[in-house]
Prior knowledge:
By secondary structure, this protein is mainly alpha-helical. 42% of the residues lie in helices and 8% in strands. The protein contains eleven helices and eight strands. Strands 1-4-5 form a three-stranded antiparallel β-sheet, with no helix packed on it. The protein is globular and about 50 Å long.
Amino acid sequence: xxxxxxxxxxxxxxxxxxxxxxxxxxxxxxxxxxxxxxxxxxxxxxxxxxxxxxxxxxxxxxxxxxxxxxxxxxxxxxxxxxxxxxxxxxxxxxxxxxxxxxxxxxxxxxxxxxxxxxxxxxxxxxxxxxxxxxxxxxxxxxxxxxxxxxxxxxxxxxxxxxxxxxxxxxxxxxxxxxxxxxxxxxxxxxxxxxxxxxxxxxxxxxxxxxxxxxxxxxxxxxxxxxxxxxxxxxxxxxxxxxxxxxxxxxxxxxxxxxxxxxxxxxxxxxxxxxxxx
Length: 277
């Protein structure tokens, strides 16, 4: 049973009204952060990098205990081996700083391609340049490489920018924002329904996490599935749960959603890979 209330409906209406499709993205970020500051006054901005654990003390205690021997450890080791494997122009040659401590700069607006490039996109671009087949995006081997690259970037602060001179970049951001607020599926939910309007409330036995901080901790080992998954896989699961169309991982729609959320998360520290229920 979903334990929702209308307590913050007026606040949500004001946020949506003030973050219209033509609003300044910086103003969007300020409005959303101000809302969470009112909702969770005990939290600092950096606390949101912990996701739901920032507002669920019991779950945080369990998470910290699990982190002593994290279930993503084998994926991390595998990812390091794969990242350092030899091929003509290996992964390190495809990235700035040899691929170390760079995850905070993704996603970004690729001026040459005129589209959003995520870190997962960049990994497959590297493979294709070396005549290697692309990896599946939602789960599997790509999660191990992402885990290693995320681990080398721990503590780095998200740095997603919207180039001022690019109307297309702004449009991509706005479409990601529209996706976040759009109600869809048989349950008529949006991302905002759970993670903005009802953040901190219960859905059955679980507490709904704030949207702020959603991009900080991926990829994650999911205890309920027993395997690593990407941020886009989580987007897909959410759409399935509300009985909506499931856009595939790294589709334009989900890259735009990631772009919007990452911009809102600017300045938050990365702490992936992580463990979630």
